[in-house]
Model the fold of this input.
Amino acid sequence: MATIHSNFFSLRCVRRACLLIIFSLSFSFFASAPAAARPLGSKEAVRGGNFTIRYGEEPPTLNPLLPPTDDSWITAFLLESLLYKNPETYEWEPLLAESFKISDEGKTFDFTLRKNARWSDGKPVTARDIEFSYQLNFDARYPAAERRAALENVKSLEVIDDHHVRFHVAAGSFLNFRTVASLKILPRHIFRIPDEGETPGLRAHPLQIQYPIGSGPYRFDNWAAGRSLTLVRNPRWWGWQDPENLGKFNPYRLTFRFVGADHLAYEMLKRGDLDYINLTPEQYLKALDNYSPSMPFVLQKVTNSFPTFMNSLVFNLRKPLFQDARVRRALVAMIDRPTIQRTFFRGLSDLAVGPWYNESVFADPAVRPITYDRAASISLLSQAGWEKAPEERFFFRRINGKKEFLKFTILTSNRVALRHLTFIKEDAARAGVDIEIKLVDRTTFTQSLDARTFEVVDYGWGSPVEFEPSPAWACSQAKEGLNISGFCDPRVDELAAKAASTFSIDARIPYLREMYRRVAEAVPQIFLLNENSTYYAVSRRVGRSRNFFKYDAGVPYMWIEKGRRSP
Done:
């Protein structure tokens, strides 16, 4: 899933769970900070009230140093990064840093901090806090293995003065800029572990802190164990005086209700006990089937440019059966994806086309999905040396005088997927292909991927708006890595490297669209379906400036209407 961002929500659904997350961060180039953005909030927005959100399972702590809460989206209201992404343009914009500059070669990044930024305890935010937040990732006393790996290409941080820092990176890459721009900034005076022999004073040990002091728009208020956690507006937040934040972070109080079971959350929504919940496609359809306009909430389908979930059937190209592209293309053309789309997904997914989601600016719109065409499929199999005799049920080819039938196994760990996989199996059998479906536990599934022993695997994934394109398709990742299909094309590797070193989104588009075309044409997977929307439900007492933004659901711009507020 996505990386936490400290300033606004994003809606995201993955398989059976739907989480409220923050945008996965990525980069578009500016020689320095852009001009102030036009406010996205409504002038009609009302300050005050309590906004209640379903959180899911209760976290063990909110200490940002400890996994898994180092990526908690509750702490995203308490802590900030240097920059954030505009939910309408997806451009980098100032947050704790009021401006930034990238050197011509892309190997140094300068950030100038806001002089009026304060921690919620009143102490100023300085360059020493940025330095500390970077250096702690390399201090063995802090559990920061994942963050340490993300920072491996950042060579050093230089403190120029109290409000100016400079990062030095090993190579010019938008990925390196993303890493430092999204670095979560912690208060040094709270989270610094005392050196050996140093008197720690009265404060708690940093790893025992339950919740952080931050610089964001909210501060911690109350934790009712097993029930809820509450944040209240931080009166010291620098952003209240910034015109850009007009109509943003409107509620006085944010209450996160810990509700693990989906059906319980839905019942609470119907009673008016929740103001906002995310919905999976299945939950949305179930709610829609039983929906009445008299209910105290509104169902919202969000169709925008934010990444949506994709699923596919990945061929193991190491297996002789799948090394012929004509066979792979024939199998795609043999699958009745339109019927799967209508019957099992009720139109909530589109036909997937290529290696990343259909609405991505990096997806080549000229590439069209392979159509369902049984005759074309049979023709391709015939060209590849497969035949079908009247007395035989399945296609075969002759190897050393013996018949080898067209047969393979699809591996899955997702019980829900059995519905459409069984349809594929039965439909393929009528066409002359013998498919077995094998349901395994998650451990066995992962082991098969790692060992590369599978034939075809049912696989689903999501990606951020901007992403590192290399790992899933790089030749170097085929043996041990994220390239599970074994696909290898040196030109794709070359395009991925050029894209990574290109800071501008617009300049990156030609590289990634060519990469998209080459991967799609090679058919290393059956790109099955691409969810076309995400979903949420919101209380009728909630005001909205719009239903959603281009890259975001827009929760920070919602408010509680006067006269319709809970205590």
